[in-house]
UniProtKB/TrEMBL annotation, chain A:
Matching Gene3D superfamilies: ATP synthase, F0 complex, subunit A
Cited HAMAP family: ATP_synth_a_bact
Family from the record: Belongs to the ATPase A chain family.
A GO molecular-function descriptor: proton-transporting ATP synthase activity, rotational mechanism
Superkingdom of the organism of origin: Bacteria
Purpose: Key component of the proton channel; it plays a direct role in the translocation of protons across the membrane.
Membrane topology of this protein: Multi-pass membrane protein
The protein's name: ATP synthase subunit a
Keywords for this protein: ATP synthesis, Cell membrane, CF(0), Hydrogen ion transport, Ion transport, Membrane, Transmembrane, Transmembrane helix, Transport
Subcellular location field: Cell membrane; Membrane
PROSITE patterns: ATPASE_A
Organism of this sequence: Sagittula marina
GO CC entries: plasma membrane; proton-transporting ATP synthase complex
Pfam families: ATP-synt_A (PF00119)
UniProtKB/TrEMBL annotation, chain B:
Organism: Sagittula marina
Keywords recorded for this protein, A-Z: ATP synthesis, Cell membrane, CF(0), Hydrogen ion transport, Ion transport, Lipid-binding, Membrane, Transmembrane, Transmembrane helix, Transport
SUPFAM superfamilies per the UniProt record, alphabetical: F1F0 ATP synthase subunit C (SSF81333)
Recorded topology in the membrane: Multi-pass membrane protein
Locations listed in the record: Cell membrane; Membrane
Cellular component aspect of the GO annotation: plasma membrane; proton-transporting ATP synthase complex; proton-transporting two-sector ATPase complex, proton-transporting domain
Protein name, entry field: ATP synthase subunit c
V-ATPase proteolipid subunit C-like domain segment(s): 7-69
Positions of transmembrane segments: 6-35, 47-72
GO molecular function terms noted in the UniProt entry: lipid binding; proton-transporting ATP synthase activity, rotational mechanism
One Pfam family in the UniProt entry: ATP-synt_C
Length: 256, 73
């Protein structure tokens, strides 16, 4: 978290803003003011925990009555379930449904972490690469292992574009290999970057709100950005999930 | 040489704007296609979002470079 502490230093020497827009991403211990170690309970821990609690409340407690006429929470849970189920079925195909629980977990976790981060004064866990990189790496490693287990050496056919002219194939293979290994990077940076950028923009406008001349405009801008962020919070979770489905499809059917 | 990294951050920030052109291009072409053949549009929204995500990721990369220049260098 080196960048965040640098941000705090900038804030003290800054001229115009009362607070630094990146201050909201500082990881600090929940109790006391010590250093952040490996097992320190920080604000990240708290908000990750709250995300899990919220998911359990919706998906386990909310659906526990199993009513034929669903209650409000049950219909939301069923909606989410059906949405992800259809996505996996459409993108990956019938044989991808075996991996549906994992993809559902990913989707629910990212959606809840994003939306909890939109509560004012809360901490956005998905804005940290320390949270999104493990998610993306887990997908990358899992999909690669799965591809080799399911297809054996045939999985390497993913890199050999058989529909291209023979002379072009080695060049395409190099490009395909590079793009394959960039996947976990872009997968994680897309989520964290989008969430971080949106929240930083909101805080920049909040800094301008202290100036009386521009405060109406900046408060309007905060409202507009917040609306956009609600959209982004969902779309980024959707994109993360659907890319997981696409990678899974590549692993199950590597031939072009 | 003090502020030159901020200049670099500003230049890297241009990349985000160019990525916005790309995202707009994807959405515009999707809309143009969808209006010609509305019945096929519904099944292609997933493709739309994948396209937008790929175009946007590269803009986010340049945003990240800007952040690194601002805070990490």
């Amino acid at each position: 978290m080196a960048t965040e502490t640098h941000g705090a230093e900038h804030a003290t020497e800054g001229t115009g803003l009362v607070f630094h827009p990146m201050d909201q991403f500082i990881v600090k211990p929940l109790f006391g003011h010590g250093d952040v170690g490996l097992f320190t309970i920080t604000n990240v821990t708290l908000w990750l925990f709250l995300a899990i609690v919220a998911i359990v409340l919706l998906m386990v407690v909310g659906t526990s009555r199993r009513a034929i006429v669903p209650s409000r929470s049950q219909s939301v849970a069923e909606l989410a379930y059906g949405f992800v189920y259809k996505m996996v079925e459409d993108v990956t195909g019938k044989d991808g449904l075996k991996y549906f629980p994992y993809i559902m977990t990913l989707f629910m976790f990212i959606v809840f972490a994003n939306f909890l981060g939109l509560i004012p004064m809360s901490f956005t866990t998905t804005s940290h690469f320390a949270v999104t990189v493990p998610l993306a790496l887990a997908v990358f490693i899992g999909v690669t292992v799965l591809g080799f287990v399911k297809n054996g050496p045939g999985f390497l056919g993913l890199f050999w574009v058989s529909s291209a002219p023979l002379a072009l194939r080695p060049i395409l293979a190099i490009i395909e290999v590079i793009s394959y290994f960039v996947r976990p990077m872009s997968h994680s940076i897309r989520l964290a970057g989008n969430v971080m950028a949106g929240h930083a923009v909101i805080k920049v406008f909040a800094g301008f709100a202290a100036l009386a001349a521009v405060s109406p405009i900046s408060i309007l801008a905060i409202t507009a950005m917040y609306g956009l962020e609600v959209l982004v919070a969902f779309i980024q979770a959707y994109v993360f999930t659907i890319l997981t489905c696409v990678y899974l499809k590549d692993a199950l059917h590597p031939s072009h | 040489m003090e502020g030159i990294q901020f200049l670099g951050a500003g230049i890297a920030g241009l990349g985000t704007g160019i990525a916005a052109l790309g995202v707009g291009n994807v959405a515009a072409n999707f809309l143009a296609g969808a209006l010609r053949n509305p019945s096929a549009a519904g099944s292609q929204t997933a493709t739309l979002f994948i396209g937008i995500a790929f175009a946007e990721a590269l803009g986010i990369f340049s945003f990240l470079i800007a952040l690194l220049l601002m805070f990490a260098v």
